[in-house]
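Appendix B, Record 12. Input sequence as logged:
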Amino acid sequence: MSLKVTLLGTGTSHGVPMIGCQCAVCCSADPRDRRTRPSIVIEIQQSPGPQAPACVQSRVAEAVRYILVDTSTDLRAQALARGVTRVDAILFTHSHADHILGLDEVRRYNVLQRGAVPCYGDERTLADLRRTFGYIFDKTDSPGGGIPQIALSRLVGPFSLGGVEFVPVPIFHGPRPILGFRVESFAYLTDCSRIPDESWALLAGVRTLVVDALRDRPHPTHFSVNEALEVVARVTPERTYFTHICHDLPHAATCARLPKGVELAYDGLDLEIDDA
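Logged structural output:
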């Protein structure tokens, strides 16, 4: 079994470039400075071994699972750019607009996969989804151009998808408790400003970490670069990628000053997690 994580979007809620901004990063020719709203997709691949019969190989290929984390505002463009043609489940970190407003794009996956897509989140996030996307759940509405078919499930602890255990990691986004996720030796902590004491143990042994680092200056609801580096020092992963990056951080110049094993993520970055 192996995992591949693709970072679909690594920017802030405004995205980079920002509308109407002429700063150096917003005008940069470096494609790594173009950042859509934050989301990742995790591909779980079951390996049957080189001697497996062709029929077994086929079944294993069908068992590959694609887990989307958040339906960002830019989901359609991200899916087209990265070839995301299947989504077997969706995990939500929280319900802010940049993390959920692409939910309507699930309609296309319903057609492709001929079924509903299970969605997982904490209690507040699920309540916000029901309110924000009331037309999905109001059975008296006319279907019109189509209604996403989703099945909501509340997360209360570790759970299994595609034969792999996923561990919700409680974190704080300003005063609001939200979720990060750990799967095998990989952890994803976007929109994070504080990790509570009880969550550090859930990050023990993480070898690949993706964590929020908005900018150099402090922010009330996101880690700064220095605060994110403090997390790295405590978790001690082999490699770390900063995400949810604003236009204050040019990719090349920022990476050049970060410690070894730490760099800015960018849209389209693929991470192989081969110790699953």
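The domain at 2-273 is CATH 3.60.15.10 (Metallo-beta-lactamase; Chain A).
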